[in-house]
Amino acid sequence: MPRSSPGARLIDDYREFFATRRSIRELRTDPVDEDTVWRMLDIANTAPSAHNAQPWRFALVEPGQRRAALAERLSKRLREHLATLGTPAAEVARQTDRTRRRLTDAPVAIFVCLDESAIQATAQPASAGAERTLAIQGTALAAGWLLLAAHAEGLGACWYSTPLFVPDEVRDTLALPPAWNPQALVLLGYAAGAGTARARKDVRELTLRLS
Ligand SMILES: Cc1cc2nc3c(=O)[nH]c(=O)nc-3n(C[C@H](O)[C@H](O)[C@H](O)COP(=O)(O)O)c2cc1C
């Protein structure tokens, strides 16, 4: 059926597809094959973006020394942060171990970055902030598309915002190109559990209907 037919749905069960996606934080260590990883990245790369600029960049970091080094640095930063909050030692140990383990053990780790050099140049200073926001929005959509692609592939995935808080550690340890600004870490793999379904507010409470 042509896509333009009124009421024609391309996918009948799309609601179930979206309803069953959830953040999966506990992953099995079984590897994900490379073709699957590229299929998901290809899908992320189809996300819409302002000016079709594709401001996203992906750093696919294999398990190994570099990942372990980054996990160590991130858990150290987390330990320092939790100490400033007066968090009890047992809780500090639990959270830092979890952070290190998740990053070290995930079969696939993808850092989604914004390429600062892909931000549309503008002669109008007033528009510069908006252009930067547009590029961040596009990058976020690519990360969201990646989560959906993982779900379609039967994989578990979770978006971690850690890179936003420690961009220098991420850039430095991964030796990213200088213009790549890490925005999100997506860890993927086969799910070790079903995850938790998180309730949503009713969209009617979040919507202003105007005439
Ligand atoms: C922008 C963004 C940042 C997030 N950061 C984190 C994070 O740092 N750690 C984490 O465990 N989950 C993170 N998540 C996952 C959210 O907690 C999760 O999407 C939300 O609780 C809804 O649950 P669901 O994805 O299972 O529907 C993030 C999600 C988004 C979209």
Radius of gyration: 19 Å
Distinct ligands: flavin mononucleotide
Q: What's the mean pLDDT score?
A: 95
What share of the residues does DSSP label as strand, in percent?
A: 5-15%
The main pleated sheet reads as: 4 strands, antiparallel
Helix content: 40-55%
The backbone outline, from C-alpha atoms, is globular
Question: Which CATH class of the domain at 24-61 and 107-192 applies here?
Answer: Alpha Beta
Question: Number of DSSP strands?
Answer: 4
CATH topology of the domain at 24-61 and 107-192: NADH Oxidase
The CATH architecture of the domain at 24-61 and 107-192 can be given as 3-Layer(aba) Sandwich
Give the helix/strand class. alpha+beta
- Compressed to H and E, one letter per element, the order equals HHEHHEHEHHE
Major sheet: arrangement of strands: 1-2-4-3
